[in-house]
Amino acid sequence: MIRVAVVDDQELVRSAFTLLLRASDGLEVVGEAATGREAVVLARQERPDVVLMDVRMPVLDGIEATRQITASPQSAGVRVIILTTFDLDEYVFAALRAGASGFLLKDTLPADLLTAIRVVAAGEALLAPSVTRRLISEFARTPEPARGPGGVMTGPPPSASAPSQAPAPVTATDRVAQLLTERECEVLRLVATGMSNAEIADRLCISPATAKTHVAHLLTKLDSRDRVQLVIIAYQAGLTAPA
Question: Which of 13, 107, 141, 176 has the most CB atoms around it within 10 Å of its CB?
């Protein structure tokens, strides 16, 4: 049973999503919230598998709520799907940087929403190829100076004036070369194009179970919480290029 929390400041919207989920096999609604702050509390108390998160809400918006949920040990493992009426790059990128595992518009077909919940609950990120390309392009334009997924340095290298005894930062390229096999690098490249496990299996002529195992190994070895972070690492390591 997949446990889902519904977060939206409009009661009518929450009720509609809740009715849809309760009528679907294998899904259970464990709570509702009307603000981002309530969402954070709900996630920590109920630890749902998936949170359907609105963006524009009072008290605390959905982006910041997502960041607090994914960063807290009390809600570790909770995955967030952002649902919004606005298809704006600033929302997509902010949501993914905050740790969301998916991004959908509220006019998504009910069947597609249910599929998205199951996909994200299974550990995959809901990233269409078009969103993946936009994500890579955004990170190419505005790399963050802090450490990214897996402890990878995303900012510029230390200046020449830094103390000589300071260890050089571990780059994404180094990390990938040290930790991954040739096959895992190949799988990482395909993940970065937005392919699902089934599509990767078809491309490499392997079973879906084997593809899933390879992706699981990537997540573990690269200390990544989901496929969104794998996409970022793949770009940083030079395994893919911005569109």
Answer: 176
Q: Is the pLDDT of residue 151 over 80?
A: no
Give the number of other CB atoms < 10 A from CB of residue 213.
14
What is the chain's alpha carbon radius of gyration, rounded to the nearest angstrom? 18
CB 12, CB 40: distance < 8 Å: no
Beta strands in the chain, from DSSP E residues, in sequence order: 2-7, 27-33, 50-54, 79-84, 102-105
Q: Is the dihedral of CA 194, 241, 144, 151 positive or negative?
A: positive
Strand partners, 2: 27
Strands (E), 62-167: 79-84, 102-105
- Cα of first residue to Cα of last residue in the chain, in angstroms, is 38
Contact 29, 18 (CB under 8 A): yes
- In total, the chain counts a number of residues equal to 243
Calpha distance 35→224 (Å, rounded) = 28
Q: Which residues contact 69 (CB under 8 A, 6 or more apart)?
A: 39, 40, 43, 44, 51, 75, 78, 80, 99
Q: What is the DSSP string of 144-161?
A: -SSB-GGG-B-SPPPPTT
Rounded to two decimals, the pTM is 0.66
Q: What domains appear along the chain, each with residue ranges and CATH number? A: 2-126 (3.40.50.2300), 131-158+167-236 (3.40.50.2300)
